[in-house]
């Protein structure tokens, strides 16, 4: 990860390989954002005209490099586009700054040291902007190179270190913002690593081991139920989904006891399907290409708990990982089989590819036994979520308006995109089974909502619950943008850490 530091040296005098400044679009012309004055002066006030001559427009994410030929301590200036310049009385929003910082660092991969004035683009040294720059740099510097061997040299690691120019680099609050951003970015990057790891190297037992290593190492109590314990406990959903695989399922409980003893914990439940072939209801080959990412919810739970423990957030949180590999085989569940779930409800499995809700239901019922303050589940649950919201937003459903609003608010502050979705009661009857308590598939139209309604059946009465369907944004199938790489993105770790930190007060 790119190392972050603070400096109060004017940007033109900072020893670095590149100086990152912000530019923006004002009507048809380019403007240099505040913070680059010292560099502009060193360049005889020709920064704007030179960048214009080089074709820079200020478009979001655009990177323009310019050699300073000795005019500044560093040999190059890198202008990154912030998009449209704010109008009078308006500000560059934090997410635009976060993305610009990420885009610059991502495109500077292989550079040893950069320095930047991006925390000053609003001209007031706001700590929110500093947080955005710090996160953007750290996240944009991500590279997953574990599996590169012969091609390693062609795929350079991210930027080594970044110095952020601020008014007072020694100020305690200022330092704290950067330290916190570094931990959050590290959590996101660990989440990306888990999601990007091929399923052959990340079976349910490996996911459990990652939780033990990371969260256990940070001071959480971690408990792993293996296939025998799951059978003894009656976890029919997790066992049913896992029964076709050579690698057995796991249920993991991770506890961060940062709050008052005895005060009810928030429970996070993550879908941990380490590979989703669809089972006997087999997916077509192209739909399987990124199904190693079907444990993105569980990865976000592991790394959120790690961040909460590392930051000593004063709140009680319990994380659950419902993990199995969904494989077709002679021992796999068949369409029409009936599973008895944890807690006793029966489910007719009409489509073995609707497996996420089966493992999640068991874990939600188990979490519900602990009198939780709230349950939030995170799952790459439906392709329908992508149809409804595209690939960059996750859907937020649930039974409690206040809880949903808290999560939507936290996502906005953290710079992650999501949208509230309903759970229309009239869709529930499409889940009726001819022979069991409920079927695992319902109306195809509104598939994200029927999946949510299925989960709702397993939430104990009176417990505030939210369901995040992150099938779209947990994985970036398109090109990298801003601070978001291809592949695993780490969504929704930043939302969860932000939400739980603000709940802790
Ligand atoms: N893991 C998939 C959902 C998914 C699809 C995530 C695409 C990311 C990208 C889930 O287990 C699944 O297969 N859902 C089915 C449900 C259907 C059979 C009711 C789906 O969405 O097609
Ligand atoms: Mn599936
Ligand atoms: Zn799945």
Please describe what this structure looks like.
The chain is 33% helix and 22% strand. The chain has 2 domains: 3-167, Leucine Aminopeptidase, subunit E, domain 1; 189-504, Aminopeptidase (3-Layer(aba) Sandwich), CATH 3.40.630. It is elongated and about 80 Å long. Helix 3 (94-107) packs parallel to helix 4 and helix 8 (236-242) runs antiparallel to helix 11. The strands form 4 sheets. Strands 8-9-11-10-14-18-15-16 form an 8-stranded mixed beta sheet, sandwiched between helices. Strands 1, 2, 3, 4, 5, 6 and 7 form a 7-stranded mixed beta sheet that branches. The protein has a 3-stranded mixed beta sheet with strand order 12-13-17, with helices on one face. It is α/β, with parallel strands linked by helices and 505 residues long. It has helices spanning 37-42, 47-53, 94-107, 127-140, 172-196, 204-217, 227-233, 236-242, 285-288, 296-310, 356-368, 383-389, 401-414, 447-456, 493-504; strands at 3-7, 18-26, 29-32, 63-67, 76-84, 113-116, 161-165, 221-225, 250-257, 266-276, 316-326, 337-340, 346-349, 374-379, 394-398, 418-420, 438-439, 465-469, 475-476, 487-488. The chain contains 15 helices and 20 strands. The chain binds ligand BES, manganese (II) ion (MN) and zinc ion (ZN). The site of manganese (II) ion has 4 residues, from loops.
